Amino acid sequence: MKTATDPGLAKGPGPAAVPPRPAARSRRVPLLRVLPLTPAVVLLLLFLAGPIAYCAYIAFTDLQLTGQAEDSFVGFENFTSAFGDDAFLNAVWLTLVFTVLSALVGQNTLGLALAALMRRASKPVRTLVGGIVITAWVLPEVVAGFLLYAFFRREGTLNAVLDWLHLPTQNWLFTLPILAVSFANVWRGTAFSMLVYSAALNEIPQEVTEAAEVDGAGGWRRMWHITLPMIRRSIGTNLMLITLQTLSVFGLIWVMTRGGPGGRSQTLPLFMYEEAFQKSMIGYGTAVALLLLVVGSLFSVVYLRLLRTEV
Amino acid sequence: MPVRPTAALPPLLAAALAAATLTACGGGSGSDPDTVKVSFKQSTDNSVKVMDTYLADIKKQFEKANPGKKVELVPIKAPDSEYYTKLQQMLRSPKTAPDLVYEDTFLINSDITSGYLKPLDPYLAKWRDWDRFIDTAKAAARGEDGKTYGVPDGTDTRGLWFDKGIFAKAGLPADWRPRTWDDVLDAARAIKEKVPGVTPLNVYTGKPAGEAATMQGFEMLLYGTGDGTSDPLYDKASKKWIAGGKGFRDALAFVETVYREKLGPDVSDALDPNIGTRVRGELLPEGRLGIDLDGSWLPQDWLEGSGHEWPEWSKKLGLAPMPTQNGQAPGKVSMSGGWTWAIPAKAGNPDLAFEFVKTMQSKANAQKWYIANSGIAVREDVAADPAYVKAQPGIKFFTDLVASTHYRPAYPAYPKVSTAIQEAMEGVTTGDVSVEDAAKAYDEELKSATDGQVIEK
Asked: Mind listing the pLDDT tens digit for each residue in A91-111?
């Protein structure tokens, strides 16, 4: 989560302490310096802060898309009904599963593994692997969703391959939809972690690793005792970024399963969409969106602790 | 340091920029008094252009008859449930509201309550053709305030479509006429046993199918339980919704049976949002579906110019009314809905929009439309016209069902009730939830959807 720092305009000394002066030049300069920022600030307030504040307000009303003439302020009712709603709790659980599986475990470790292996690889191999992984990442979300839908569906590529190998086939999108969409998200998002870790690994001075090698530390020990501690900050940053990205994944899941069947892959963003736009409960949907924000902040707090330099 | 004259530039620029961006997405329907903007639902099947073709024709007529006036067609290509959402968002602001919208009767009361639509009574009073519309159809778009908010462009009924070829292979008669639910299930079981590789019976289910699941699937069953005449969903006398009783559980059990015994489509196909398009475009024409519980409008996808013509459908498919649960009177069930043309409250050119409706709903144009989209006539003069009755096989069968049809209790809470029904269906379809638990969950949902206006019966 971004924390906005208060620019805090330099305050002039208290009026009582100084004798009144004619319009001081020194006071006008900061003002002039701020002037070029105004267009950006005005636009941000208008198009970003405004809607966000409006959303926060809506979350406390019973606003509906259709079916009632007047909306009214209902306080915390949306939030209390969310926690009594099995579908919401199911969505929270699935969101956690999806995030842990696809971001923390999948993208993160696979990204690190790829980055570490590619350091040792020859240039053509590096280019090829990097190219393939990044291609998956730059594809538009909907396209990636369709590709993976085609891969997983009953008559899809995966089952065709399994069939050819005489292995039992599965209707993946039906039996294990949350695993299928998690895999899809790993496939699509690993490139980001790979790039972050490639950069981080390049920062590690060769001498340190060489020294460890001379002392007889094997690959795993070098990884555990030298590499990981040295890139700890990158790990924290990367985890934070991919977690927040993953929490808000919508298109990929929507294209593949629409949150179904029977809500078995309905993460919070899909749940929100359904409540707000399909059941017209805009107020309730927005309240759930705020709760998703809370989930995101909880993760962020944990990572921020990770990022702290050890004293 | 004196303020340079240019210093005033940034704020001015910002203001200009903001003004430009804000107005660029403005300029709604009110922007041009000579253009009428018409929003309609475009089929998700790219080859089906029934509505597009019809509206293009009306547009030509209208622009010829009203020189200087323009019609702008605004198609919304989406499955039903997403179409409603998009439309409601457009209706909320005068900047985006079209002049004329295509509204499903299932949602119209909800939108009337929200104040999205304009009462049409002053216009209808001056429009002589309105007397030609049959009374039940006039009521379809009547709000709780007694005013009329939409002009219906036809209605529909529902029944059983069956594939005669598959029936022959399964040893079932070509003039099949099931008397009870069990007859339907037994026919499906016979197909499953004797004709491998085809889907025996399609009953729409679950949230992805949306209102199709509720109406073509569940209500076709539910309204055939009990005494077969009173409304099992809504009690008019007390103005309350009825909690799931025995009939409700029996209907759910039917759905459960279909999917548990694998008499229906594969569950993942049944829960694919495009199942309706697939049934009409692939399964039936390719002879891969035995029985389809579906609406009267199917042939519109098979007519000439529809993209996948299938002129021999009337030879290949048979029709049978959906029976009541145990064959109790009246012996058959049908549900009716339909769509209407309505004018948004925030429309810029309501008068012009109504002129367009008049052009669309003249006898000749209405007749053309009923035939093109396989609709059931709501104008009595068309219904009595032999040219209409003979225009298409099936019209007579489905028009005769009007006598024993039911209308949904399309009150403002209905869309939410419908979603609750779909959730219950989806639970028993996937086998995740028992009939008993699904019915209990429905009762809970019903309470919150209707603010506790629920009675037990």
From this structure: 999 999 999 999 999 999 999
